[in-house]
Amino acid sequence: MTNLKSKLRILKIGGKVLEQPKALQHLLMQFADWKEEKILVHGGGNKANELLTQLGIAPKMHEGRRITDEAALEVATMVYAGWTNKTVVSLLQSFNCNALGLSGADLNTIQAHKRQVKDIDYGFAGDIDQINTQSIQALLHIGVTPVFCAITHDKKGQLLNTNADTIAATLAIALAQVYAVELILCFEKHGVLLNAEDNGSVIPHLNMESYQQLKTQGVIFAGMIPKLDNAFKALAKGVDSVVIGGAERLGEGTRLTN
Amino acid sequence: MTNLKSKLRILKIGGKVLEQPKALQHLLMQFADWKEEKILVHGGGNKANELLTQLGIAPKMHEGRRITDEAALEVATMVYAGWTNKTVVSLLQSFNCNALGLSGADLNTIQAHKRQVKDIDYGFAGDIDQINTQSIQALLHIGVTPVFCAITHDKKGQLLNTNADTIAATLAIALAQVYAVELILCFEKHGVLLNAEDNGSVIPHLNMESYQQLKTQGVIFAGMIPKLDNAFKALAKGVDSVVIGGAERLGEGTRLTN
Asked: What's the whole-model pTM score?
């Protein structure tokens, strides 16, 4: 079935590429060249932890998730919404991409609530309630490229820290109502690999069935599993396709479809 | 002569009010209530210097102007575009004002160039070349309230630090082509005072003539002179009126006209 909706590409970047100026430039130059309507979502790399350490504050983590106390929220907002976001926006503008940096507070684009305390108090961690698709569509419509950082808010004046992968997936799902969305997750490897040691062994295509098989066989394991589970969840909720790949040849890698 | 252009209010805030959560809330609540189209411009208060000091970097100044080396630019961008900007935006959203935080890089709203080195190298200090009035008008037109921080860029990928007073005045002058602009400069006193020690001695109205008189008499002196000189320059370049006053009763104070 041909999808008659117009295409929207949502790129999520994070990790080391944000810390390597040359690699970041190369990646953003490719992104700027994409002709389709597009959105960029970025994490903050390791810079928030570095700044916390420089300030003599030990970063608090629980099972790979950050515990955001007041000091960590301030640092995360400074790094993600400040330095990283404006660096990316300024580079995109230099490549003639009309970028606009956004936190979830700006135009109330992403409204969240402070995660409820169960066993662990994650502090000022925000779980998303609502995407303001209308505002985002209006921006895309006039040729603006939104650049989201990993900061949201609760519409009551409280900023919150929200995982950038979650923001990208939630945006993709919300905007899938109006666009044929391709979600591109950019990470260190060239894609999902048959052999974790060999960057040449990229699996070109995965669907739910082949994913389950490779998982059972132990070919796909560890950190790739939550990433792929989330990607398949996004597909199940209307996203057209998900591409998992590297920064050098943006948009290539492993393509996931239903 | 009646001005037939529609009204635009541009508020500049800075200094201590940014560091006092209660006072900031009270000020932003008043701002959110303004019915006219409006723009907010904020400095960063003392927070950038504090963070530099915490990081063991001595803030560099020359005659009251910051010298922005690479570390200072990073800190300024983190504080102004990150923490301060998003705190203000999130509070305004909580008061149902549809705020959008902007640096000059976002939508290429304010393009600048790195200040030329003459006697002093100010580092990454940006002198404004161009205001993208079209983009700003488009935002105002759809009910968005732009919130500018003191960061600009050169459209070649370089972020720059630009004085917030200068940004407010330059925006006011550029937008005076299409709007009847009222520029409101908010500072620690209730207005321009007849007696610097008495906050009750606000001069209600100044024009160029009465300003010159009071300057000659030594009633207006020191730090007020560059502030007022800049305000009268803005009036000479088409801004309708300038109000200099305090944060408690926003929009009241000394009104300057031609």
From this structure: 0.96
The answer to whether the beta carbons of residues A139 and A100 sit under 8 Å apart is yes
Closest by CA position to A99, among listed A39, A58, A149, A51:
A39
Kindly provide the ipTM of the predicted complex, given to two decimals: 0.95
Half-sphere exposure of B203 (CA within 13 A, CB side): 20
pLDDT in tens, A71-128: 999 999 999 999 999 999 999 999 999 999 999 999 999 999 999 998 889 999 999 9
* Residue-wise burial string across B210-221, b where 16 or more C-beta atoms lie within 10 A, e elsewhere: ebeebeeeebbe
**Block residue for tokens 């007020």:** B224
Q: Do A93 and B105 touch (CB under 8 A)?
A: yes
Kindly list the structural domains of chain A, giving each domain's residue range(s) and its CATH number in brackets, ordered by start. 35-163 (3.40.1160.10)
Distance from CA of B255 to the nearest CA of A (A): 32
The angle at the Cα of B150, spanning B149 to B154, to the nearest 5 degrees, equals 110
Using a CB–CB cutoff of 8 Å, tell me whether B133 touches chain A.
no
Is residue A94 within 8 Å of residue B156, measured between CB atoms? yes
Structure tokens at A235: 């597909």
Residue pair A35/A188 in contact by the 8 Å Cβ criterion: no
